[in-house]
# Entry
Amino acid sequence: MIDDKEIVVIIPAFNEEESLPKVIADIPKFVDEIIVVNNGSIDKTADVAMKSGATVLTEMEKGYGAACLKAIDYISDKNYDIVVFLDGDYSDHPEEMNLIVEPIIKSGLDLVIGSRMLGKRESGAMLPQAIFGNWLATFLIKLFWGYKFTDLGPFRAIKYSSLINLNMRDRNFGWTVEMQIKAAKQKLRTIEVPVRYRKRIGQSKVTGTFKETVKASFKIIYLIFKSLLIY
# Structure
């Protein structure tokens, strides 16, 4: 049944030359296209992605959301049914992709989040500040919009039509929480599924330093409260 749908995977990547070949190699064969958005890398990220068979786009504005929006613009004239977002650091398990696309195909859901909180996490894979940030953000989403999430995990799948209707705008740290807030406000059919999570290859660009952690946390909380004022 999966083979009946056109599926694209989007991987934002900044200096992931070591991990990307492993990520791409583990992506299931039912995927129709793998897009790596080279987000201002200064290593061989673009080269290894291309050699691994991915379509490589370039977005020099650094930011997770900026990279995702670049890829969404690229696929606007294609006929994909499902868009999967995946990190390029090999912390997720791409071989579990069927777990996050099947609920869309079999049950007609709009958005499926791969939850690291519900799944098995390798010790040390998520830093304490990331765990707390997830808890706070998902608590506020439930409090304000009544949607229960446990995670803002990057490994997720969404119907292409639903993604376009969300009118995503955030260009950096707030991408995942913006998607979940808008999904709640638009009353999309969502579900979380447990996924495994391991220590990433290299240092996190978001929670790897205190400065980046503070920036990401502030942006996420800002987006949540801003969304209360916007229909």
